[in-house]
Amino acid sequence: MCTALVAQTSSSFLKETFGSDWEDRWVLSTASKDGADDGIAKYNGKWAIEDSGKENTALVATEANRHYAVSSKLSEPFAFAGKPLVIQYDVTYKTPVGCGGSYLKLLSAGETDDLDLAKVVDKTPYTILFGPDKCGMDAHLRFIFRHKSPVTGEYREVHARKIADANVLLFSDAATPKSHLVTLVINPDNTFSIKVDSKPVLSGRLGSEDEFDPALSPVKEIDDPTDKKPADWVDEKMIADPEDLKPADWDQPKEKVDPKAVQPEEWDEEEDGEWEAPQLPNPEYKGEWKAKQIENPEYKGVWSPKQLDNPEYFEDTNPYKMTPITAATYELWTTTSGFTFDNLIITDDEKEAEDFAAETWQAKRAVQDKEDPNKGIVAVIKEQVQEKPWLVVVMALLLLVPVYFVFSGGEPAPTVEAEKGAKAETPEPADKAEDADKDADEEGNDADAESEEKKE
């Protein structure tokens, strides 16, 4: 059995490969989730350690339709004091994902100094949530941070925009399960980057309106709650023209009796009732009459209340300075079993995270790829196209060239060598040519005779 806990360095706050002694460092929650049915409210999903026998172990959520919560304290709180924060782990889905999260939460310090990890629930305050999440076809690689207002002291969640191809990147290979590495880097210059399998998928500035929702800063001005629209305010821009009168002959019925209809001779009023002629569309029907619209001379425009300075407005120029973190937790709900977590690192050194991935995840992924029966030319082409999209154009052109010659009825122009070869061919002997002419004449005579027989 391999040793699970990797040696701690000065730059890492948590490193875990989930060996047999993992429960010495991780605590299972025994709490219940508020608002859930009693049958599924408890955080009682069973975890197990997967040991592949290839110097690789991992933590597996073994049951479907369960809440899970397992947490570990950092070696020391991370204080966002001028160094990057790097969060990285790999996750594998043993079966197709129905609905469930596989993200990591970093629990907030300050609010949680007396945090009892055995009581962690979904409402336990966190600073950052990062990782995959999927329900049906709606797939995400979530990055959420809770931002504290410097004015009100209240927290609200700020979500990074959705990664469009998260489903393909993370959830598309359940038939031959692959481990996917997810990485989040938060920099002191207020930039961030997200990677999947060591490849960048999203980057930007923390709290940017282009990258996050809602906007980090509240609006500068708000409506004056005491300002009410005057009773005589006219906000109808167009009105009916009072001088536009309906023509006297406008009202015509929509249908009229068919003048050519005749009561059938066999019609019996005692049995069939009173006969009524069928109705036809009336060509003189003009529809509902409406007066022409004209501009309202009393129109005052669209009313809006007066604007006041927002007392809760602030502009945070350093959103990197988040609430310190003290613990990490996989707090999840899933309808699918087999979520497998491994090789978690929380550090302030991006190079250390890259080296850790090279030692752990890359080796595991190489074995998975080698054992994949579908890992052939198609998979290689797919990977190359993802990295070099222009290859699609090249392959399309290679396919279209032979198609062009087939449908154009032509053939490629002969090469110079081919023409020389044709000229260099030795002509047949004269006697063979004469024999060929005789055979052709005899075949022609036979054909003429056959034609005459058909005519007779």
Average predicted confidence as pLDDT: 85
Derived from helix and strand composition plus strand pairing, the structural class reads alpha+beta
- Give the biggest sheet: 9 strands, antiparallel
- What is the architecture of the largest domain at the second tier of CATH? Sandwich
Q: Show unreliable segments.
A: 1-9, 420-427
Beta strand count: 23
Can you walk through the features of this model?
With 456 residues, this protein is of the alpha+beta class. It folds into three domains: 12-215 and 320-371, Jelly Rolls; 377-421, no CATH class; 429-455. It contains eight helices and 23 strands. It has helices at residues 166-171, 269-272, 350-359, 361-371, 377-387, 391-408, 416-423, 430-455, and strands spanning 12-16, 27-28, 47-51, 57-61, 66-78, 85-93, 99-101, 104-108, 126-135, 138-148, 155-160, 180-186, 191-196, 199-205, 212-213, 221-223, 238-240, 255-257, 279-281, 293-295, 307-309, 325-334, 339-347. The strands form five sheets. Strands 2, 5, 7, 8, 9, 10, 11, 15 and 22 form a nine-stranded antiparallel beta sheet that branches. Strands 1, 3, 4, 6, 12, 13, 14 and 23 form an eight-stranded antiparallel beta sheet that branches. The protein has a two-stranded antiparallel ribbon with strand order 16-21. A hairpin with a 6-residue loop joins strand 10 (138-148) and strand 11 (155-160). The N and C termini lie far apart (98 Å). Mean pLDDT is 85; it is low at 1-9 and 420-427.
